[in-house]
Amino acid sequence: MGDVFFDATVWRKALAQRLGGEGVAIDYPTLCRRWEAKLVDVYLGRREYWDAFREFLGDLGLDEARAAKVLAFARETAAAVENRVPFDGVAETLARLKAAGLRLAVLSDTESREPRVRQRLAQLGIEAHFDAVVSSVDIGHVKPEREAFAAALARLGVPAAETLFVSHDGDELQGAKRAGLTTVAYNYSEPVPADHHIRHFSELLGLAGAAGRGEQEAG
User: Fold this and answer.
1) At the N or C end, where does the chain have fewer CB atoms within 10 A?
2) Whether the predicted pLDDT of 216 surpasses 60
């Protein structure tokens, strides 16, 4: 959900700055890649989030005292940014897609099971729009594995060839393409492969053919 529905970079950027203050030489893209790799076991329910984070700090060469300070900072910052604000146009676009009769799903790599993911979507004011919410920890697969996309398609009851997959991540987009979905890159920070690239979330209406249908149904 992060970086598609809301800005998920706040915590990571704050962490990168704090690590620099502790003498860790790591740029933001490298930090993201290394931390995401560590999260795979978390997303599959094999370990706890903050245990993985402690190991990550050790991998970066922080001694116990400095790691403890960064861990405390990370927990405080994560709590402070828990209340997310959706990107401009997200709520309105999802409502119009739903009104046009399209089926919508969230495929989330997360340590949380479906009820908690739905709770987070509700906090964003968009949970009611989704026909399916598929969590990695529930299905035992993460993106870009083909099985993750297959699970979401099965829950929706739609074929891959008739499905748009929206992401900011190049690996996820390539995995979706291999699984037969049409890919849409959104909120991407560097060139990523996709069938379509959009700058505003509302552009999905045109790609899904929902703009006209939504207006007709609303009228």
Assistant:
1) C
2) no
